[in-house]
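re: ur question from yesterday

yeah so i grabbed the chain u mentioned. its 452 aa long if i counted rite. heres the sequnce exactly as i have it in my notes:
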Amino acid sequence: MILRDGLFTSESVSDGHPDKICDQISDAILDACLGQDDASRVAVETAIKGNLICIIGEVTTKADIDLRLVAHNVLVNIGHEAMDTGHEGRWGLNPNHLTLVEKLSIQSPNIATGVDRPDGALGAGDQGLMFGYACRETEAYAPLAISLAHGLMRRQREVRRAPEGAILGPDAKSQVTILYRDGKPVAVDTVLVSTQHIRDIPPRTIHELVRDRVVRHVIPENLLTKETRILINPTGVFEIGGPVADAGLTGRKIIVDSYGGAARHGGGAFSGKDPTKVDRSAAYAARQFAVSLVAKGWADHAEVQVAYAIGMPEPVSVSVNTFGSGQVPDDELVETACPNIRKLLTPGSIIERLELLRPLYLQTGLRPLRPSGPRSAVGEAAGRSPQRVTKRTEECHEGPASAGPSSFLRARRVAASKQDQIQDGAAIIVAKPCAWSAASPRRVVATRPPCR
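ran it thru and got these structure tokens back, copy pasting raw so excuse formatting
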């Protein structure tokens, strides 16, 4: 999408938001399965309200998973206190006193025969369409509004975990409105942050803390003007939050997990799905292709659509929309830039290239729209762009059950400090626009050098 003039807004949510809690529990279950059995087939949905958690879906795995412990550890990591007493904790939820309802079955054998094909190829786990997007607004090739909104939520988490920000709670939302002129972002028009906090704190105290320690830490000074509005907790009080205040459900933040509305979305959620589900893996790969096109200089904006038929390895269609910014016509771009793209977009190729059978999904969902990977992000499709998924992993060190990884989850995790490394061979190979191509008999000349 290209906005010539006017305002555009995107939002993000914190890890303590009810819907994001459910995303994390679903992804933690997926990680636990892949950590023991990388052939696991997982499609898990989670719902939460108060201390009630419902986990439903289809799982075919050899792994032995303690669902209660998975949910417990996710909530503790978010910041909910696990207490031996019946007290519900500072934020109204005690992970030691959960009511768990579970209804899981194995994957339908009709689907399984299409995914695990007799010819050895991996078929798509479902039909559907997915989008990937990239632009030049940030170094991560991600839209500016969603990037700043995610940055505010990451910073809110950092601040509330420090002594100075202990008055802030896990549940929070952000929203950023960007002013565009001639197709370029020129200023931040409005910043909105709503954050849970402890009782009996003056609104002014919350406002000053969030403004000075969160907003001004994330929003570049050159984008702040005298007209920029900074809104902190517009209702005045946000003491009751999380699943105590609102029910949560997996997959309800698909726009937060992708591009904040700056690009289209195929409608399929990511969390709780293993990579044979192209809703997730193909969205990562489409993002990867879009980033490659922009980084190589083919376009300033690229929106890639892929579509699949259940049981078939290759996508039924691949298309690119550059919104008029491309070096060649859009209908020629796919074959000109990457003639073998359909082979690279099979589920098997995506999974192998991006190493998606590793238990990396919980952290992917928590790191949206980072230059290092898909979450996603991640968000999530733009979140941790699979262009930069590192091979470096480290063992998860076990800690107390109330504070660390589950005892059964001894999976190899991607080292957070290594996530910004570019994995050799991970990126889709896209020719530079100044190169000759067999698919295009004429020489294509770039008007600008590739963005490094």
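noticed a couple things. The chain is about 25% helix and 20% strand. also Residues 368-426, 434-452 have pLDDT under 50 and may be disordered.
anyway ttyl
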